[in-house]
Amino acid sequence: MPSQPPTTSALTTHPHRASRRRLLRRLAIAVPVASLSVGSLAIAVPAWAAPTSTPATLTPAPPTGTNNYYRGPVTLNLSATDAANGVQRLEYRLGNTAPFQTATSAASPYPSTLTGSAQITQQGTTTVGYRAVGGDGSAEAVRTITVRIDTVAPVVSWPGIVDGHVGHTATLIPTRTDPAPGSGGVFIHRMWIDQTETTPLPVATSTLATGAHTISVVASDAAGNAARFDQTFVVTTSFADLDTLIGRFVTSGAISADLAADLRAKLTEAASLADAGNTNQAKRALNQFVAAVQGGPTSGAVRDTLVGDARYLQDQLAGKLPGDPPTGMIVTPAAGPNPIAPAIPLAASTNFPGATYRVLYFSATKGFRHDHIADTALLVEQWGQQHGFDVDIWDPRLAPASLSSTPFTSAADLAKYKTIIFGSPVDGTNPNSAPASDALNADELAAFKGYVQAGGGFVGLHGASDAIHNVPWYRDLVGAWFTNHPGGQNGEGTCGSCINVRVNTEDSTNPATAHLPKTWLTIDELYNFDHNPRAEVHTLLSLDESSYSRSLNSGNAANNPMALMGGDHPIAWCQNYDGGRQFSLILGHDRAQYYRESFTRILLAGIGWTAGQTEANCSTFRQTRTLITTSTAAGTLDPESAAAATALLDEAQAAYLRQDHNAATTSLNKIIALTGSPAAGAARGELDRQARELRDWMQSLK
């Protein structure tokens, strides 16, 4: 039976058919009546019928530069599907308002799936839009992906050097630019003055002899593009420069006001004679100037500068200055920092064949989270496999490589660990952080404290000093609390808050630092503390604040020196504290540090010592003072001996703090002599041992 057309009542009683009719009416409004055929309706499909692209990808992946930049062309990979009408072409555009370009297209009959690619070379940060166009001409909504490309190295210049010359009273600060639309953040990685490496600081020409010099720097941008810049120039001087130097030396206390007045009188006389054309008499006046300098109480460097400038002026008057060497800038490509692939820890609990003990790596954060955490966890696990210890990780954000619940349940449970590594478990107790709970709650902290008091080991790494700010016991354990740090520039590559520093190795007898030179250069984030811990701990490493207080890589520090710790700045230490062994390494923010053997050897030795696997001299004055106090209270050290030992210990510590290690040794020898008397009491053996360790430490510092 042939079908019948629907009646009006049928239309009104079927809402789905009514909706279909309303849709046809809307299409009739949008499309001319003459075009309302089956074919024309297929062309005017709604947006939901357009082809669908899969999310675009980039090749290579991940980015070849740092900070998610590419240091070369990038391939944009596109793919889309339209099962009904096929895919006619894939399009892309460079920017939100740029015209679309065709990445690839197909001929009719159009395939249901079309793939293609396009090479992106546009410098800077580009929002790349892409879409697919179906076989019926319908285009999907534009999708986007961000592409960051920078292939051009930064540019460094020294504006204080004009035509290859600079006076003897200038301060040279380089101008650093990254050609637009670059990644910015220009960072000076290395710097040399006349082939001697230094940290990147302003150059006072007064510290250079007159004549030719070369300043060399390697600079990179945020993408990691780098170049070396060798600037050769000539330092000159003048009567005015020499007068200015005299004034500076008076201000610094290098020369007396009386000597300065005498020198200025002779200099003024020489300048007047030179202006009058009396060259020989001017030279004789300068000879008198030199004699006055050499006969005065001046230091070697100051004397050499004043005499050198006077001789320069004499040669200039006589026309005997040597000809200038070639000057200018030579630029050569250099290797910049490379990105570091994400680290993935091995497992929540390792069980290596032959392992003889177990350690806990704790890095759960409730405040700022450091990038190095996963790298350090992986490194510790790798060390466990190499050196025979198992590792547990407690950090839910490292799941599945984390324990499922806190191991800080009781001191007895924690006793299975020879040492516990706090890998920057920053919490919210620092006023600089957002409010949050402590890294350990009250029960967990009690368990941890009991573990330490029972002889457990503790390694405090970097941000461990930025946790549990409301518990003085923890501050004394970690050594000091973080307060702030200088800011850096993200052209460093892997650490936007890091700057260059010279580190002093104070105790080269400790296994953690024995491999290090007396001074060495590194790049890291440099903490300031709530107090200087030197009097309480056994300092292993310290920062040379003069090497970065005016860092070229930290904001406006070159012009306005940073307020730091007052010149004495411990940065790594160890101690025997409250029954346990403690080791703090406050460097280690930069992920790159965990791929540098000279740095990782410090941390590995700290783990070994706190776990009781190696021995080291980590004696402290606080430990010995505590021994005297507790022994006296227990009656194992007689009061008279205790008073004498305390006075001598105070003398030794005061001498140590003023760096008079001979005097400190003398006072400690007297404590050793005091313990030779049986009348001192039963504690005299331990007091003798600790005093000898302190003496050995003082002797190593001489």
From TrEMBL:
The entry's keywords: Membrane, Transmembrane, Transmembrane helix
ThuA-like domain location: 358-610
Keyword Transmembrane helix applies: yes
Signal peptide bounds: none
Positions of the FIMAH domain: 239-313
Transmembrane segments: 27-49
Name of the protein in its database record: ThuA-like domain-containing protein
Organism: Dactylosporangium siamense
